[in-house]
Design a protein that fits this description.
30% strand; alpha+beta
Length: 74
């Protein structure tokens, strides 16, 4: 499940299908799986979080909890 990154887009694919995307708009990243604009690094974190959840990890997974907290309060 690679994350493909260019200067203006990020795409997470799972089994050949797009799972989540991010687009740079006015200097911030809009991620399809996150409700608020993010900076570059947090957009990658949001896509990594989506990848982990797509792999079947539960909401109680320590990484899921930590990444969500980082995105919310970071």
């Amino acid at each position: 499940m690679p994350i493909h990154i260019t200067e203006t887009r990020m795409t997470l694919t799972t089994n050949g299908a797009v799972t989540a995307e991010a687009a740079r708009v006015d200097g911030a990243w809009q991620v399809t799986t996150w409700p608020h604009p993010l900076d570059y690094n947090r957009a990658i974190t949001a896509l990594t979080l989506a990848e982990r959840l797509a792999n079947g990890h539960p909401e109680t997974d320590p990484f899921v909890i930590s990444w969500r907290e980082e995105l919310t309060h970071g």
